Amino acid sequence: AATTKSKPVNILPGSAVSKLANLNANAPGKALMLSLDCKTCHKISEKSVGPAFTEVAKKYPNNKASMDHLMTKVREGGNGVWGDVSMPAHPAFETTEAKQISSWILSLKQ
């Protein structure tokens, strides 16, 4: 019987496979966002009352400082960054929920 040997495959950051893996890893954040009131003011790729999530992803680098900033914005709300409409606070969100949503948003960076 013939045997085959698997070879390791390097996945380059920024490649299509890497982006797909990143989106899949952050799918719980998208599901959570869809179950909450976020979608009332935000859409994934077009402006609504608030900015599109893809625009938020473009604005912030995918790092700890941006993650912390977005988590704070999700929980405490804010205004003036994207126009005159204020984002309401969501103080009942757990830190883990804010992190899941923020991770998903940052995963949308192209």
Describe the 3D structure.
It is a single chain. This protein has 110 residues and is mostly helical. It has helices at residues 16-25, 27-35, 38-41, 53-59, 64-76, 95-107.
Category from helices, strands and their pairing: mainly alpha
Question: What is the ordering of alpha helices and beta strands?
Answer: HHHHHH
Q: How confident is the prediction overall: mean pLDDT?
A: 84
Number of strands: 0
Summarize the structure.
51% of the residues lie in helices and 0% in strands. The protein is mostly helical.
Question: How are the SSEs placed, and which strands pair?
Answer:
Layout: H1 16-25, H2 27-35, H3 38-41, H4 53-59, H5 64-76, H6 95-107
Observed structural traits:
110 residues; mainly alpha; 6 helices
